[in-house]
Amino acid sequence: GLSESGGFDWVIARLEEWSLPEEIPVTVSPVFDMVDPKELGRWVLESKKRLRVQIQLHKILFDPKARGV
Q1: Is the alpha carbon torsion for 1, 50, 54, 25 positive or negative?
Q2: pLDDT over 90 at 13, yes or no
Q3: Please, what is the average pLDDT of the chain?
Q4: Is 51 in contact with 25 (CB distance < 8 Å)?
Q5: Is the four-CA dihedral 48, 56, 3, 38 of positive or negative sign?
Q6: What is the DSSP string of the chain?
Q7: How many Cβ atoms sit within 10 Å of the Cβ of residue 65?
Q8: What is the mean pLDDT of residues 44-49?
Q9: How buried is residue 32: exposed, middle or buried, by Cβ count under 10 Å (0-12/13-18/19+)?
Q10: What is the dihedral of CA 61, 62, 64, 65, to 10 degrees?
Q11: Residues whose CB falls within 8 Å of the CB of residue 8, separated by 6 or more in sequence, listed in order
C-alpha cells in the first residue's frame, strides 16, 4: 500500500521506466489512516495512467483494529 505521495511518484516512475502495456492492470492502494483514498484518486486522475484504486473495505465496514474480518 501507499503511505505517502512519494510512494505514488515511485509507482509512476516505475511504470514509465518499465513501459508496461496498458492492458496490464496495476492496482494502487492507500495505507489506512495514512493516505486519504480521495487524495489517491486525485493523484491517479492527474497522472492520466490506467491505474486501479483499491481500498481496504474491511477497515471501513468493521472496526479498523478488528482482526480476522
Answers
A1: negative
A2: yes
A3: 92
A4: no
A5: positive
A6: -B-SHHHHHHHHHHHHHHT--TTS-EEE-BPTTTS-HHHHHHHHHHHT--EEE---HHHHHS-TT-S--
A7: 6
A8: 96
A9: middle
A10: -170
A11: 2, 28, 40, 43, 47
Q: Which three cell numbers mark 66?
A: 478488528
When pLDDT is averaged across residues 1-30 and rounded to a whole number, the result is 92
Are 15 and 48 spatial neighbours (Cβ–Cβ below 8 Å)?
Answer: no
What is the C-alpha end-to-end distance of the chain, expressed in Å? 19
Q: Which of 42, 3, 44, 4 is nearest to 26 (CA)?
A: 44
Q: Residue ranges of the domains in the chain?
A: 5-61
* pLDDT band, residue 4 (cuts 50/70/90): confident
